[in-house]
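To assess whether the prediction recovers the assembly geometry, we first specified each molecular entity separately, as shown.
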Amino acid sequence: MTATNCLGLVLVFCAALAGMSARLEAQFGPLVTPGQAAQARSQDELDWYLEIVSATGPTAAVQKVKIFVAAFPKSELLGAAYQYQLQAFEQLNDFDGMLAAGGKALAADPDSLNTLLALAPAMANRASARPDRVQLLSQAESYARRALDGIDQIKIPRELSIEQWNIRKHEMQSDAHGVLGVVAFQRSQFQPAIRELEMAISLVPRPQGVQFLRLGLALAAAGKKDDAEQRLRRAAELGPEPVRNVALDQLKKLSEGQRTLR
Amino acid sequence: MLSAAAVLAQSPPENSPLPDSPGKVANPSVSISDLARSGRWKEVAALADRNHRQNPSDPTALYWLGISHLKLHEPVASVQAFRAAEKLGLNSALSHEGLGLAYYDLNQFFLFEEQMKKAAALDPRDSTPYFYLGLYRWTIRSDAAGALQFFDTALERHPDDWKSLYQAGNCLEQLGKLPEARDRYTKAITLVEKSNDPFGWPYQGMARLLLDEKPEAALDFAKKAVSLQPDEYSNHVILAKAYERFGKIPEAIKEAETATAQNPSDSTARYALYKLYREAGDPRAAQTLKAFQEVKTLYDRD
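The predicted structure of the complete assembly is given in tokenized form:
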């Protein structure tokens, strides 16, 4: 098994662990410019949109978005509706659904950090098993870089304090650097991968086990056995159980002197 | 610009009926009204939900669900309840006002305006829809002239409403019609003083208008605004400016610090504080300037 294939398998399950980075509040949260918010033009249109917002479970949400789109194909709320559908497909672990919904959400709102940072990790983490791997990695990288640019330029609602924003900003930057690290790894560019994955860890006060696992795998692939062991041990400490199991398995292989990823 | 939610923070004019009855509804519930009057909205929601389950065809319970969810800042549930009530035949000024405010809270201004117009049509003597429409035109659309028309219409229906008087004065001030603005503020102040209502806005307006012309009077008005609404940061900003006019820099700094603490995301207060620190030779000026720049970059639109 090649290094990238091995990481690909790990990342698919990491993706399932990660879930959506933030609760989606498309359209209805505090807005910087409420006057520019997408408007429903009839009560029925908003009623159907609220059916999506209040859907119980991802399957229902996916269906309700389909109904909404069919009934109101020119709605200003389409972009927000597709963001909900993207989230629902992610919960259903339906990657093709995510790609379709995310593409439509981005068509409506190309700068949506929610969408960019939902699509980019999914693409990077699942690319290895797909025939369109190269294209997915390229898109993931592009989306992550767009997100990083957007984070730097964003205006925030006054309801959000600077302290709250800084926490959220660093989480998003961490996510984006994590994507760049995975993309680099998938391209066998181990030094950039290590740099990006270290950056991802450094940006958050409490990094997750999965982040150390990725970095440990990248270090192992780069032949940095001692550093790799250290990060894998940290991953095993932090867990959760699936991360711990993979980390311990990798540690065992390293200690047996195997170049597991090469 | 204020956020959409800001309108909900504004009380309706004083002649607005309490939401003790949505209009022509069957079997009005007194106990819910009592709970609503005392602001126990979670209990209102629970009782209304129970009543709705017992009698699903009665729109009254749904009306109360809508109102209580609105008050609990749950606008999605509020809209859904009001809409269900509407589909059961509820069609009153109060229900349209409630639904309109719930739409507003969801940034759905097209539907908000539609509902306020329906409310106004059903109760032509009610000033409340016009007051809310005015607030919307000003806070969301920055349309002082359009907002003024609505506030004037509200005042035709309720001439003693000091909140509409203040808002009309503020629009006139924005439009550069300062004598008329002063007239509205003065009238609002007269009414506020009669009622003892803790409403400091017209005093703040007067302080702004008189800052250059009559700084002593401005200082008094600014102090009064602060005494009436000490938690409103902009009152402290004006008071800081008034103190500064008299060279009372320590007092001005204290007020600007209060304003900044109360509203950390406001760049105006930060900048006022920076200037005062600089004037006083306070070493905190540099850090405050940096904070001002950060706040301006993050929050203020170009």
